[in-house]
UniProtKB/TrEMBL annotation:
Residues 1-20 form the signal peptide. Keywords: Glycoprotein, Hydrolase, Protease, Signal. The keyword Glycoprotein applies. Belongs to the peptidase S28 family. GO terms for biological process: proteolysis. This is Thymus-specific serine protease. InterPro entries: AB_hydrolase_fold, Peptidase_S28, Ser_carbopepase_S28_SKS. It comes from Drosophila kikkawai (Fruit fly). The gene is LOC108084350. One of its GO terms (molecular function) is dipeptidyl-peptidase activity. The keyword Cytoplasm does not apply.
């Protein structure tokens, strides 16, 4: 069974490339890009139990919502399911984030079930620069200046206005928002900027605090393996990665390169190559923890513990996780080259990386000693990458200044909003950047990232079911 899970992990990591693989049939994807894309993929597709007539529609949006002199426009895509629509139907909008939207989010799941209860119209908006909603002819750094959360939130305002103006039955409808991960953050910030346009919202796994060196992330990943996989599994990860670090540091680099199946271009005397490699190793474990469901980590730990020594276990596990290519391209230069290639070959990896440089940081580094993934991927790896991919202006000081501006604009951990229900998995590596129980959020035991969008079912834990039922009751109050 563990082998089956590992095959699934490899398949998921490859599929997570999405549009990148479609547009890069002759372009290899370095493992750092591959693993970062996996960590920013969209919410899990929902189970759809009946056929829904989901329509694809387009809105003409301003390229720059805040410059009246700029008359350029672009076409923003959204999906709508109006099967329950009646006079005065509430509008249930799910916000798209750094991914391509798809039909299941408005055809099944808990959001769909609540819309059905209230005869609501379901809408799924696509974020500018992702999926098919591309505003500019290239993704050059100059063109990416129109990619900002404030622009995306203003797009949602226009969408709401259009839905109401074009459909008489919805002219006076109440509006609710939902989102997961970055789009959950958007729900919170929309309520802060436009409090009168929505009556309430659901933010699942919303990071609120912009932070460049996000050391807490790997701590929670480690804790997930410790709590669910056990001490032996945690020790194997920690010891195996430490041994690989030691091999490179003590003139056994050739042996380590062979063990990890690295391409000949890898230079173990180059800090940026080593940082890219060990960041990519840690990200395989992060992907497991961030999206784990019942039994996943236990199966992976069984596999890790089936080897006789620590380093061999790590090498084999990450080889599966990286998709088993002929050799592993972990060089820093290939990562830079790939993101530069993305200027003319649209790929969600480049715009999201730009947003981290320009707004949030959230670089999941090895800066904490309270995690098992070693010491070889500092935040400097990611800030250096910002400068090399986008512009020299994106140095460490500027990136920290950008994150500070985001916190000033949106309040950081004190967004000052009402009628927003925030949920987090207790083992979600993102939850340290969001509200906890003390601030009124719900932490769901043993759950991870965006794990609560499914319909209420008998297999839900007591905590998960209680959270879904609480949200359903809040929606009833907001719509009363």
């Amino acid at each position: 069974m563990a082998a089956v899970r590992l095959v699934c992990l490899a398949v998921v990591l490859v599929l997570a490339l999405g549009q990148a693989l479609e547009t890069s049939k002759v372009k290899d994807v370095p493992v750092l890009v591959r693993t970062l894309k996996n960590l920013s993929r969209g919410p899990p597709q929902q189970v759809v139990t009946k056929r829904a007539n989901v329509q694809e529609k387009w809105i003409t949006q301003k390229l720059d919502n805040f410059d009246e002199t700029n008359t350029e426009t672009y076409q923003m895509r959204y999906l709508i399911n109006d099967e329950f629509q009646t006079e005065g139907s509430p509008i249930f909008i799910y916000l798209g984030g750094e991914w391509e939207i798809e039909q299941s989010m408005v055809s099944g799941g808990h959001w769909y079930d609540m819309a059905q209860e209230h005869n609501g119209v379901l809408v799924y908006t696509e974020h500018r620069y992702y999926g098919q909603s591309i505003p500019t002819s290239t993704m050059s750094t100059a063109n990416l200046k129109y990619l900002h959360v404030k622009q995306a939130l203003a797009d949602v305002v226009k969408c709401i206005e259009l839905l109401k103006s074009e459909n008489p039955q919805l002219a006076n409808s109440k509006v609710l928002l939902a989102g997961g991960s970055y789009s959950a953050t958007m729900v919170v910030w929309f309520k802060r900027l436009y409090p009168d346009l929505i009556v309430g919202g659901w933010a699942s796994s919303a990071p609120l605090l912009a932070k460049v060196d996000f050391t807490e992330y790997k701590e929670v990943v480690g804790r997930a393996f410790l709590e669910l996989g056990g001490q032996k599994c945690y020790d194997r990860i920690q010891n195996g990665i430490a041994e690989l670090e030691s091999m490179f540091a003590n003139k056994r680099g050739a042996e380590a390169r062979a063990m990890l199946r690295l391409c000949n271009s890898f230079d173990d005397q180059n800090d940026l190559d080593l940082w890219s490699l060990f960041g990519s190793i840690s990200n395989v474990f992060s992907g497991v923890a961030q999206y784990q469901s019942t039994g996943d980590i236990e199966y992976y730990c069984d596999y890790l513990l089936s080897f006789r020594d620590d380093a061999t276990a790590i090498a084999n596990f990450v080889y599966w996780g990286w998709g088993m290519p002929s050799c592993i391209d972990a060089t820093y230069s290939s990562t830079v080259e790939y993101y530069l290639w993305g200027v003319d070959h649209f790929d969600a990896g480049r715009p999201w990386y730009y947003q981290t440089c320009n707004e949030y940081g959230w670089y999941q580094s090895s800066g904490s000693s309270n995690q098992p993934f070693g010491t070889k991927f500092p935040a400097t790896l990611y800030t250096t990458l910002c400068g090399d991919v986008f512009s020299s202006q994106y140095g460490n000081a500027q990136i920290n200044s950008n994150a500070a501006q985001t916190n000033e604009d949106f309040g950081g951990m004190e967004p000052g909003v009402e009628n927003i229900y925030m949920t987090h998995g207790a083992l979600d590596p993102w939850n340290p950047m969001g509200h906890g129980v003390a601030e009124g959020a719900t932490l769901i035991a043993n759950a991870s990232h965006c794990s609560d969008f499914g319909s209420i079912r008998s297999t839900d834990s007591a905590e998960l079911r209680a959270s879904k039922e609480k949200l359903a009751e809040l929606v009833r109050q907001w719509l009363a």
